[in-house]
Sequence to fold (181 residues):
Amino acid sequence: MSLRNGPKQGEPHSRRRMLALLGSALLAAPLLSACQPLYGTTQSGARLKDVMAGLEIPEIPGRVGQRVRNELIFGTTGGGRPANALYRIDISVRESITNTLVELTGDIQGQLVNVEAEFSLIRLADKQVVLTGKSAGRAALDRYNPIFTNTRAQLDAENRAARVVSDGIRTRVAAFLSSTA
Fold:
């Protein structure tokens, strides 16, 4: 009795797999052909990267709000100031912590950091709100006895959740601007 690693070239099993891949590619082709590259050009012909770099992002209160803002600035301009701002994003951030692992003694072993943001994209030319939306991020953390480790773990979880929120906002705004700007 010999052990085989799988079907050899030309065997029926491998042909079925190849036909399945070809079939799924043919089914996906019409769907993908309608897609527009997210970071290509906009309807007006301007590069989306340049339009996104022109977003004005005002300060957001709180440490987590500042992290969301910093992530957005870095994601849109690479860390610089907006050039020729055409749009402004107003963002409000709400954060909370949920206890997830509570022992019978009442000790908390795990928590979940929840960061939720509501945003409005405002066209500066006429002060009109052109897009509104929400973005949410969650990050888990474990709790330990030393206080410093809990504080550091919570800060890291807040940072991770803020990054998820800013990525969601940036993607929604980019998708909107790619089809309208």
Q: What stands out?
A: The mean pLDDT is 81.
